[in-house]
Amino acid sequence: MQKILVCLKRVVDYNVRVRVKADGSGMALDGVKMAINPFDEIALEEALRIKERGETEEIVVVSLGTKECEQQLRTGLAMGADRAILVETDTALEPLSAARVLKALVDREAPGLVLLGKQAIDDDNNQTGQMLAALWDRPQATFASEVVLSDDRVTVSREVDAGLEIIEIDLPAVITTELRLNEPRFVKLPDIMKARKKTLEIVPLEELGLELERQFTVTKVEPPSDRQKGIIVADVAELVQTLTDRGLL
């Protein structure tokens, strides 16, 4: 396989406590630490391991968003990706629009495999990978916990409610990754310095010639309700009575 395309999304770092804007129009991002979506970082790590086994020649990382996404792409390059592409846009892309943009890049780059996280931790939609596979008309395997390449096919293990499901699909294909697949490597300072010399191509969204329309409008964002303080009951009878009084039984 000649090339793997890995999608990286810029999100709020998972260690940061997210705050809602005072007007309820969205999340407060000023001064907030941003990072690569953890599931996408796992996808990149898997691509790097595939390359280290000699099963692919090139890894291209891709991000969609503002110029600030260069930071996450540079991190991907420092981890070991060969080059990066930023599709620059100030518009927040919905899953279908993101999938259409990725499809345009797939047509241009012709990868043998596209890897991305099963979902992004900011919106949790879990849709982009599946939509990309549909637009590309290629097989897909989601929630991958193990990936094994063999010639022009790939075997994927995925966790389902009943246990493990093992499927085999033809390449090219789309695979979305979950937390159990691997543990991403730590980026060292020399790798960060080397990444500055790697190619990072910026492509304005308009150059792709896509007509993207928003399908949804966020009317209001609210923080979750404060968790109620628990109580200790003396016995089962008191538990049943408490639940009955609260209308839960």
Layout: helices, strands, pairs:
Layout: E1 3-7, E2 10-12, E3 34-36, H1 38-52, E4 58-65, H2 70-79, E5 83-88, H3 95-109, E6 113-117, H4 128-136, E7 140-150, E8 153-160, E9 163-170, E10 173-177, H5 189-195, E11 199-204, H6 236-245
Parallel strand pairs: 1-4, 1-6, 4-5, 5-11, 6-10, 7-10
Antiparallel strand pairs: 2-3, 7-8, 8-9
Taking the sheet with the most strands, its summary is:
9 strands, mixed
Write down the overall mean pLDDT.
92
Compute the gyration radius: what is it?
A: 21 Å
Uncertain residue segments: none
Helix/strand order: EEEHEHEHEHEEEEHEH
| Shape type | globular
Q: Based on DSSP secondary structure assignment, what is the total number of beta strands?
A: 11
Q: Number of domains in the coordinates?
A: 1
Please write the CATH class name. Answer: Alpha Beta
CATH architecture verdict: 3-Layer(aba) Sandwich
Strand order of the largest sheet: 9-8-7-10-6-1-4-5-11
CATH topology: Rossmann fold
Please work out how many helical segments DSSP would assign. Answer: 6
- The CATH homologous superfamily is called HUPs
The fraction of residues in strands falls at 25-35%
Q: Class by helix and strand content? A: alpha/beta
What fraction, in percent, of the residue positions are helical?
25-40%
Amino-to-carboxy terminus distance: 58 Å
Please supply descriptive tags for the structure shown above.
Rossmann fold, 6 helices, 249 residues, nine-stranded mixed sheet, alpha/beta
Question: What would you say this structure looks like, in words?
Answer:
There is one protein chain. With 249 residues, the protein is of the alpha/beta class. The chain has a single domain, classed as HUPs (Rossmann fold, 3-Layer(aba) Sandwich). It has helices spanning 38-52, 70-79, 95-109, 128-136, 189-195, 236-245, and strands at residues 3-7, 10-12, 34-36, 58-65, 83-88, 113-117, 140-150, 153-160, 163-170, 173-177, 199-204. It is globular, with a radius of gyration of 21 Å.
